[in-house]
């Protein structure tokens, strides 16, 4: 069995759908199906139960999945340890500067425990670049928020967080239990500079072009509200500074925490694969 074939098998086993697995692997479906059939021939048993309603693992497939995951993980560890021994094991992580998240500390601890010989280089990005330098090639993997243009990127959701409206504490709207987009239509908002990712701008501007002071960081957002009485969207659980408050915002989808990397790079870089797996575990619990 080749490691590449086992990666194909794991993708189908986790997606339980040949089409989605092919997209995940950045390949067409026919060669993926042929590879799985060849693997079943080598094993001597069916690995998947195929039906009009979907795909499921057979008992043999379930056993192979456990073993394949362990084997692939061990193969990745071999590559990482060898790279660490020769001093080339590094990964550059882009982080969006949107405030402290206790899960980041948990992720850092878990990743260091798993890869103690790997140097993790950090690049903190401001709110004008939700890919944290990923698209520019400045980082290997990004821990950030969506939405943004995902062309050429692989993006996995880790968590969603409710959002609210950041207001001065003496703003008349601050006394409301919740607010909707219609309540904010005539207000000035803090906004991101021209050229910022359109999907990102649209989400944090409430889906409407806004007028107001231009900001680039969470601190600037807060100061714009404090000094100008403007408003804007923020995470509901962000602790506002003195003089500000956050009111829940209804009819707006939650903010997505995501891990992202360039398409295909996880196939060649075990540190990215490992980061994504550990991130999913840390944010799932």
Question: Can you lay out the helices and strands and say which pair or pack?
Answer:
Layout: H1 3-15, H2 18-25, H3 29-43, E1 48-51, E2 54-57, H4 59-85, E3 90-96, H5 102-114, E4 119-125, E5 141-145, E6 153-161, E7 163-168, H6 198-204, H7 218-228, E8 232-235, E9 244-248, E10 255-262, H8 265-268, H9 270-284
Parallel strand pairs: 3-4, 3-5
Antiparallel strand pairs: 1-2, 5-10, 6-10, 7-8, 7-9
Question: What share of the residues does DSSP label as strand, in percent?
Answer: 15-25%
Shape: elongated
- Give the total of beta strands: 10
Please compute the radius of gyration using only Cα atoms: 23 Å
In whole angstroms, the N-to-C terminal distance is: 33 Å
Low-confidence stretches: none
User: How do the SSEs run, as a string of H and E?
Assistant: HHHEEHEHEEEEHHEEEHH
Percent helix: 25-40%
Structural class: alpha+beta
Q: What's the overall average pLDDT, rounded?
A: 90
Largest beta sheet: strand ordering = 4-3-5-10-6
Number of continuous helical runs: 9
The main sheet comes to: 5 strands, mixed
């Amino acid at each position: 069995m080749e490691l590449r074939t086992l990666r194909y098998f794991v993708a189908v086993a986790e997606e339980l759908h040949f089409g989605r697995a092919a997209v995940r692997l950045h390949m067409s479906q026919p060669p993926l199906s042929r590879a799985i059939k060849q693997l079943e021939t080598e094993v001597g048993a069916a690995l998947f139960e195929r039906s009009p309603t979907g795909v499921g693992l057979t008992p043999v497939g379930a056993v192979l999945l456990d073993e394949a995951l362990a084997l692939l993980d061990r193969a990745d560890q071999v590559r990482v340890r060898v790279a660490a021994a020769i001093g080339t094991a590094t990964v550059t992580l882009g982080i969006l500067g949107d405030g402290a998240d206790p899960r980041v500390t948990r992720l850092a601890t878990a990743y260091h425990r798993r890869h103690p010989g790997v140097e993790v280089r950090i690049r903190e990005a401001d709110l004008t670049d939700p890919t944290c330098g990923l698209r520019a090639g400045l980082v290997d993997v990004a821990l950030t928020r969506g939405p943004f243009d995902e062309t050429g990127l692989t993006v996995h959701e880790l968590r969603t967080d409710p959002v609210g409206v950041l207001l001065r504490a003496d703003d008349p709207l601050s006394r409301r239990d919740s607010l909707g987009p219609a309540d904010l239509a005539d207000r000035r908002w803090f906004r991101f500079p021209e050229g910022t990712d359109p999907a990102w701008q649209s989400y944090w501007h409430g889906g409407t072009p806004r007028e107001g002071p231009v900001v680039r960081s969470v601190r600037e957002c807060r100061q714009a509200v404090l000094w100008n009485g403007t408003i804007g969207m923020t995470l509901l659980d962000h602790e506002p500074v003195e003089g500000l408050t956050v009111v829940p915002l209804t009819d707006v989808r939650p903010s997505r925490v995501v891990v992202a990397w360039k398409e295909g790079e996880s196939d060649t870089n075990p540190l990215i694969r490992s980061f994504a797996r550990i991130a999913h575990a840390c944010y799932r619990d």
